[in-house]
Amino acid sequence: MPLLRAEGVTVAFGGRRALDSVSLTAEAGRVTGLIGPNGAGKSTLFDVVSGLRRPRTGRVRLDGRDITREGPARRARRGMSRTFQHLELFGRLSVRDNLLVAAELGPGRRHAARTADAVLDRLGLTALAEDPADALPTGVARLVEVGRALVLRPRVLLLDEPAAGQDAEETERFAALLRSLAADGTAVLLVEHDMSLVMSVCDEVYVLDLGHVVACGPPALIQRDETVLAAYLGEA
Ligand code: ADP
Ligand code: MG
């Protein structure tokens, strides 16, 4: 049984379908990519999966259990955690306090400081722990956002464009982090525009275009799929 499954998810804004019967599976221990041009519906699918938006039709299942009607807090307690495309850090708090605030809500809350420090160390952020979040370059701020998701010890981790604003070296380190999270058994669902990152870290890639899954498969196949090329070339 897959850890996370979206089945036939449809979302409409006014008359327009942002998602039209979208199904997707994310397995424990794997990095699953979700790519597609701007406006394809990637962030909307994250909203549905994380419980911020109810789909018009369709289901979200975690371990086979139907969680479609559960809110985001309930899903977080079940082990789902996400980051946002638009960063949602507390700008005046330090890097460490941003993680602490989140850690105090999670399963490691009784040892929140230790939980936060362990994640800072894993992300290579210990030296920046006392810096205010709003003074960070975007690439580092993205890592802090990932850290806030990680202190919740997620089984399912949803990352919405986490490498946007990272330089080449940061992206390389980030790729290694994603692989190590998968090796720990986490189901990672990655929305990302950096194709070399997607193709190097993902086990499987879904391609969304105008609310439809137009392709899905291992990176090597997706890279030469004509429907995928058409979706991207269409955008350019
Ligand atoms: P992506 O993340 O792939 O760029 P989104 O999920 O953000 O795409 O958006 C998918 C479509 O839904 C776009 O056409 C977008 O304009 C529309 N959309 C997203 N959120 C809303 C909203 N709150 N109200 C109306 N339309 C929206
Ligand atoms: Mg988006």
UniProtKB/TrEMBL annotation:
Domain ABC transporter: 4-235
Key word Nucleotide-binding present: yes
Keywords assigned: ATP-binding, Nucleotide-binding, Transport
Gene Ontology terms: cellular component: plasma membrane
Keyword Aminoacyl-tRNA synthetase: no
GO MF, any single term: ATP binding
Official protein name in the record: ABC transporter ATP-binding protein
UniProt organism field: Streptomyces griseoruber
Biological classification of the source: Bacteria, Bacillati, Actinomycetota, Actinomycetes, Kitasatosporales
